[in-house]
Fold:
Amino acid sequence: MTNDLMTIRQMCDAFDVTPRTLRFYEAKELLFPQRDGTRRLFTRHDRARLKLILRGKRFGFSLEDIRQILDLYDRDGSNHAQTIRTYELAQHRLAQMEAQRAELDVAITELKAELDAGGAMIAGLRRAAE
Amino acid sequence: MTNDLMTIRQMCDAFDVTPRTLRFYEAKELLFPQRDGTRRLFTRHDRARLKLILRGKRFGFSLEDIRQILDLYDRDGSNHAQTIRTYELAQHRLAQMEAQRAELDVAITELKAELDAGGAMIAGLRRAAE
DNA sequence: AGAGTGCTTGACGTTAACGTAAATGTAACG
DNA sequence: CGTTACATTTACGTTAACGTCAAGCACTCT
Structure:
């Protein structure tokens, strides 16, 4: 069984992040490692939170979004209103992502058309400028 | 027929940008308006370039990318090697956009799964942390 | 004790594309 | 000539998520 307390380096190796990142997350109040004198010791709790953080980032949430979600979660995991709030946050983010994808689709289609048509951006751009 | 020379405000109204933006583009050498004393006067040429700039932005090109493309275009619109170069830039950008869309698709799918499964991000995040 | 290794806390740097504010100019109107 | 309405330059501010030193402590090995 993996030790309950991990040094910053062990954390970095385990999660593929830099020490700077972990300290940054602590400064932003996303993590709260214990101290052994001056050194940080990360608990299971920190590891769980870090997983959530990295997962949230993959979803495109900002660190601030993530912090809010984690705070709600820690304050009272069973509070219905807060769960709803988080749900709404996720829904909102999902809508953003889908809108972004739609824009991207349009841009990709247009750019492909340029390439297919003129054989070069320039030609496409010139036509667009008429 | 619309006058050949336009003030900064006319440009802003016509293209829905701010004066700051036009001055910024000039500073970045994307536009080269004439001067009437101290005031800028934008020519048809500037308008054509601005259209290209805004179009490039929709494609997700950086201003620096756009500047390079415009420079090649102005220097010699018929130079084959330069046309090829621009073509490659566009291809590269297209590849980036498609990669980005792929990532977005994965994230959207995952996030949807979370929402469908647990009814809340928190639940999803908790399962992920186990 | 000296060397090496790893950890710590500052604190400034990076990137893009402008926003915003301050001080000044100047053209036209009445 | 005074006011109004835009224009100009200069230059610092913004945002996110860290990167990159710099200087120094803490422990261990020899």
Remarks:
- Residues 18, 20-21, 24, 28, 37-39, 62-64 of chain B lie near DNA strand C (CB under 10 Å from a C1').
- Helices of chain B lie at 8-15, 19-27, 44-58, 63-75, 80-118, 121-129.
- Chain B has two domains: 1-59, 76-130.
- The first helix of chain B runs from residue 8 to 15.
